[in-house]
Design goal:
Growth Hormone, Chain: A
Amino acid sequence: TPILPQYASMLGIDASALGFAYSLYNVALIVCLIPAGIMADRLGRVKTIVIGMMLFSLSSLMLVFVKDLAQFAIARIIEGAGSALATPAVFALTADLAPTEQRGSGMGFTATLQTVGNLASPTVGGAVAQATGLTGPFYVAFVMALLSAALVIPIKDRRPRSSTSTSEPSPLAAYRSLRRNISESRSLLVLSFRGFIVGITQGLYVLIFVLYMAFKLGMAPAQVGFAFTLISGSLLAFTFFAGHLSDRFGRKPFVIMGGIIIASGVIAFSFTNSLLQVYLVCLVLGFGIALNNAPINALLADCVIPEIRAKVMGGYEVIVSLGGMIGVLILGGLYVMLMSAPFYVSGALILLTVMLV
């Protein structure tokens, strides 16, 4: 991301075309998530992750050699497909390997490492580009993706065997498994609806927070970036501990408490009028999100029949992503009409998810 403007200039791509091609990653991700989940349930988690990381490494190498917009778009589509293969498979593998009584800790550990990667990647990528040139970060991503695939290969896949008759056509077997899952655990429907609402509220972080800080408060780009760093830092500090404690005291108390803190922080954000207030609210928001992340993932894993865990997670991620796309449009429209409206609406929606859980 830090090198994107310079990279686009090198290719001779204007901002609008770049935005379209860049968004193809998300399109490919959404389209491929459910098939990727089905693949992970049938082929195995480890094999699916390895294939996904190989695709990701291929796309990174392609970005070194692309010459025009079309080639860049193809690379982004392949990158999105690779991420889609890895995402539900990693969730399912973590749930398979972690015993039920330690699942929150397992989810918390995985989420913590992902947060570390998200925090470090812009800094590392920018430093590598400055030291070696614009293509340097793509070479590094290529090598790291291959290394990740190599590290996963030795893991023993503990994918549960399906109890559905193998003589049934696979689409019918999948449908029957999903129907049985919902009939045995209505919580899955509630969590899916919650995921959609969470996706909508993510429009706050993608768009509304940035607009509010930049135009309402007059914050500089570096100050806006530091505010998001505080959210991520708070996430990093508390995610694993929240997951660990949820194994001891239950998932729901942390989901409820985290939801209330997030809703309060979102509404409080609309009342901030100084840097210090923004930074304090960001720390609180990060803490609330941390209380939610690992326990929600563990709760989702607890509700899902093991044999279809990956495909359900793929569907869940699609629901969240669709909510995110809708949320940017809805909350952006509300912001134009009344600046504080997106904060109140999002806070109310988050409190609704708390009541549902």
